[in-house]
Amino acid sequence: MDAKDKRIAELEALLKAALEKIALLKRRIAVLEKNSGNSSKPPSSDIVKPPKGGVAKGERGGKRNRGGQKGHPRYLREPFESAQVDTVVELTMNCCPDCGHELTPTAEPAKTCQRVELVAKPFVVTEYRQATYWCEQCQCFHTAELPTEVKKSGFFGPRLTALTA
Q1: The pTM of the whole model exceeds 0.70
Q2: Are the beta carbons of 144 and 108 closer than 8 angstroms?
Q3: What angle (nearest 5°) sits at the alpha carbon of residue 130, between those of residues 124 and 131?
Q4: Which of 36, 120, 151, 163 has the smallest number of Cβ neighbours within 10 A?
Q5: What are the two backbone dihedrals, phi and then psi, of residue 37, each rounded to the nearest 5 degrees?
Q6: Cβ atoms within 10 Å, residue 34
């Protein structure tokens, strides 16, 4: 046997040993990774609880972030038609909330915010129209504020919120 054949035999022996070691380590990994989540083992046999994984990892430990997900199209609820609106509340402003200066009304259409509530009808829609004003002194636009109870309760009244919950 010459030097080349001897070297080939040594390398084949090393390769065989390495492949046996790899197979042994793969079996060990499979045993260590087995838990109640990926096998028929009962949860009490887990050494530690397996991590709860979400579909998209966010800031809150593997769960999805609240609200719309990145890359998904934005969805907004369609507003009710004017024939469906029962009450319209016009919201106005007398002076600039920052400096107190007189405001000039603009031709810009008012922002609309519709709140829906369940009643015997079965629901009442109230539309709040927030007029927009221009302040000559501040050089900025201002919009009339929504009433506090509307801000706090959101776009759905308490009965409709309870029904959906």
Answers
A1: no
A2: no
A3: 140
A4: 120
A5: -80, -25
A6: 14
CB 20 within 8 A of CB 28: no
- Please say if the pLDDT value at position 133 is more than 90: yes
Contact in structure between 138 and 101 (CB atoms under 8 Å): yes
Q: Are 9 and 17 in contact (CB under 8 A)?
A: no
The residue behind tokens 């050089």 is: 139
CA-to-CA distance for 27 and 38, rounded, in angstroms? 16
Q: Considering just the CA atoms, what is the radius of gyration of the chain in Å?
A: 34
Residue 157, token pair as written in the block: 């009244």
Q: Tell me the mean pLDDT in the region 150-164.
A: 82
Question: Is the pLDDT confidence value at 114 over 80?
Answer: yes
Contact 140, 162 (CB under 8 A): no
Domain residue spans of the chain: 82-164
Give the pair of three-digit tokens for residue 25. Answer: 């380590």
3-state helix, strand, coil in the chain (%, to 5): 30, 20, 50
Per DSSP (E only), the strands in the chain are 87-91, 103-105, 111-118, 123-130, 132-135, 140-143
Q: Mean per-residue pLDDT for 64-71?
A: 83
Name the residue type at position 41. Answer: K
Q: Quick check: 135 and 101 in contact, CB under 8 A?
A: yes
